What we know:
The structure is a single chain. By secondary structure, this protein is α+β, with helices and mostly antiparallel strands. It has 3 domains: 2-65 and 195-300 and 438-469, Roll (Nuclear Transport Factor 2, Chain: A); 95-191, Nuclear Transport Factor 2, Chain: A; 312-425, Glucose Permease (Domain IIA). The protein has 9 helices and 24 strands. Strand 10 and strand 11 form a beta hairpin. It is globular. It starts with a helix and ends with a helix. Zinc ion binds next to loops.
Amino acid sequence: MRYQNDLYQPTNPPQNESSNTQKHLFIGIVCATLLIASYAFFSKKSEPLAPETIALTVPDITTKIEQSGANEAPITAVDSPTVKPLTITDANAPTQSMQGLSTIWQEHKVKSGESLSAIFSSNDLSKLDLHKIVHTNDISSQFATIQPGKSLMIGHDLTGEFSHLIYKKNAYAELKATKLEDGSFKVELLEKEVDRRINTATGVIHISLFIDGKNAGLPDNIIMQLASIFAWDIDFALNLHEGDRFSVIYEKLFIGNAFIGPRNILAAEFINRGKSIRAVRYQNADGKTSYYSSSGNSMRKAFLRTPIDFARISSHFNHKRKHPILNRIRAHKGVDYAARTGTPIKSAGDGKITYHGRKGGYGRVVIIQHGQKYSTLYAHMSKYRKGLHVGSRVKQGQVIGYVGKSGLASGPHLHYEFRVNGVHRNPLTVTLPNATPIQAKYKADFLEKSRILFDQLDQLNATQVATAATPE
Ligand SMILES: [Zn+2]
């Protein structure tokens, strides 16, 4: 019971525990859900999380540096050196045309699996018109990529003749087809100008990253990005401490003064037990985006620190531990994570399975070799992930089996070992190698652009420390 409540809480002793139990449980569940979602996104691709509607569409966004709000700081965006403004064909479309007296509009919400052709049929529209619209010009084929949940506006003139079709791609882009006198169509993409404003936030951890992030004014999406960026360095479940601090520089998208949503974290700092970890977003000339440390190392590590979610450490790496079942001194050359039977166990890094089967006190065990130097071991599984065997290649984060108590175990847990050149090392403290650092050819560009953001983090820090020092 305790371990559910402890998820994502600072590890110092809770005060007033009984009265806080429900609150903690709630927070735990909320944060757990968030982090699962975050991890699900993150394990698909290393790209940060961006609102779907925005990420999938218009690539060019005007960068506007504003100083209007106390929270908004002037800064140059690192990843878009050549942002250019969108062409505003008609800022008010289709509102303008909808207000016209000559067109009668009806809205059609696109259903899952519904094609434009099916929509034309169900609305008694001509297949010939559909063909003409889709083949009008280069952009008109986008009508064929309509997505469920979005809206099509179908317009008829006063004689009942089909005259317009508008597809609302997202908050700031619409595809519009207009029937001309000769029966052909004009198709245009109408885009509103999107401003990208830079926001900053700082906060201190008292309860959890999620709650304290919210209190600092961070949108959910940005909190999830923050957790993802630092996932390799900080265990937000087990290693968060009261007084840890964070600073974030991120983008918000606006049309005019209307806020559409948050976008990317540009830079962030997390101070965990006094140790500062910083990350900055960088997009290279090939368009690849990732987060890097000030020296250009990837924030991603070749290994996950913890190969299991929603667990608590029940036994540390220890050369002189009294074995709980054997009841005699025996080195514990790994870390035990207590978790429910069936909890997924993930491969800590990319590698190849070299052992898959029972092994004495270890019970059901999987050993993975990662390159020449490293290997990891996962013991006491209740069952293996189907389809894996000796020789199988696995990716970092891929599920390889499930928690159990096979072999010599007093309760369900994962026994995890990390070996470097065959020698057991403490998985919690061993220095983990970084994933690929920034390419040499981009290094100078990276250093130049990231410097501005790191300076900005310095300023945020100075402000935060000064504010904290002021007596209330
Ligand atoms: Zn163990």
